[in-house]
Description:
With 188 residues, the chain is mostly beta strands. The protein folds into 3 domains: 2-62, SH3 type barrels, CATH 2.30.30; 65-125, CATH 2.40.50.140; 129-185, CATH 2.40.50.140. The protein has strands at 2-3, 12-15, 18-28, 36-43, 49-55, 59-62, 65-76, 79-84, 90-93, 109-115, 121-125, 129-137, 150-155, 160-164, 172-176, 181-185. The protein has a 6-stranded antiparallel beta sheet with strand order 1-6-2-3-4-5, with no helix packed on it. The chain is flat, with a radius of gyration of 20 Å.
Amino acid sequence: MASTSDIKNGFCFKHNHDIYTVIEFLHVKPGKGPAFVRTKMKSLTTGKVIDNTFPSGHKLEAVRVERRVFQYLYKDDMGYHFMNTETYAQINLPAELLDKAELMKEGSNIEVLFNADDDQPLTVEMPQYIVLEVTYTEPGLKGDTATNANKPATVETGAEVRVPLFINQGDLIKIDTRTGSYVERAKN
């Protein structure tokens, strides 16, 4: 059993018959009343993000998870196919376990979280940023960087991302995989 003092980002635990991971947390010690921990946690089975407050010292049932590196191979009717980079064993995962799957590029490495007790995959974690090539967008306007206007652009994986007006077809862009938004133009 773990307590609220063990809570940190990435901590996995059982709560209300589900497995959650902590995204954000804040230990609060008000001037009046007992201390508590305010958390933002994500369900690893449904993907929902909820806010919850635990009183200080509350007991939590920790879940052991293992992170394994896999390489994304391809997608078909059965789901997304990955290969373990150490053992070369292949697995396929349903789309429900992946967030922003449309940003995954074939051959890219991702981390899969497994429940250590029953070896079931819980979720897929992509790298925080990914660099993709713009395959289609309207022609860019040179020098138009003063305004904060955006236009749609299709990247090499088929996903559509909003980019600034100066981005052209063939440019490499850096995308935040958590939000699916444009970050900056990438270097060649």
